[in-house]
From TrEMBL:
This is Ribonuclease HI. The lineage of its organism: Archaea, Methanobacteriati, Methanobacteriota, Stenosarchaea group, Halobacteria. The keyword Hydrolase applies. Coiled coil: none annotated. Keywords: Hydrolase. Its EC number is 3.1.26.4. It comes from the Archaea. It comes from Halovenus salina.
Length: 197
């Protein structure tokens, strides 16, 4: 359960700017509470506690963002196509800003890789990062995004468009293919989602 040390008034402004309308708290100690998807943020003096499922997007809006981040993403499919999951890690100079994983239904391995990248970019965007340096162990996704490979599959073409739209929202970005061992944390998170999801 993430605890974000912050000024609840500023955190509230950030949520309102993202069209999330906080409500009154349930107790005397709660300043306000807000929901997004399965996650709920509850503000107290000097901090906001985020609980529930898939807290990353809500957390992203509440934290101080800006600057540059390294984004690691991964997708895994058991069966190709089959049950799939994604994992992501976003790292700044201060360490891990956020990480997570989730099951995404049945897809191919390449669709899962794209889904991991897209989700990680959405989280990075929510944090307000201006520059992202992305690392993926999927050579296909990296080369398709960079325009070095053609995208023949209609499903992957759609995912590439989605990823490119997200990338265009950053001041600058780079995308690099790395061996799996350099993407180990995101890879492990994607695989852990099968055990716990």
């Amino acid at each position: 359960m993430p605890v974000i040390e912050c000024d609840p008034a500023l955190a509230r402004e950030r949520l309102e700017a993202a069209d999330i309308e906080p409500e009154a708290g349930n107790t005397d100690h709660e300043r306000w509470r807000a929901e997004r998807g399965d996650a709920t943020a509850v503000a107290y003096d000097g901090k906001v506690v985020v609980q529930g499922g898939d807290t990353a997007r809500l957390e992203a809006l509440l934290r101080e963002g800006g600057g540059r981040a390294h984004v690691y993403s991964d997708g895994a499919s058991r069966g190709n196509p089959g049950p799939s999951a994604i994992g992501w890690v976003i790292v700044t100079g201060d360490g891990i800003a956020t990480e997570g994983n989730k099951r995404i239904g049945d897809t191919t391995n390449n669709q899962a890789e794209y889904a991991g990248l897209i989700h990680a970019l959405e989280v990075a965007e929510g944090y307000g990062f201006e520059e992202v340096e992305i690392r993926s162990d999927s050579e296909l996704v990296v080369k398709q995004i960079r325009g070095e490979y053609d995208v023949n599959s209609p499903e992957l073409r759609e995912k590439r468009v989605q990823a490119m739209e997200l990338l265009s929202g950053f001041e600058s970005w780079s995308l690099e293919h790395v061996p799996r061992e350099l993407n180990e944390r995101a890879d492990n998170l994607a695989n852990e989602a099968f055990e716990h999801g």
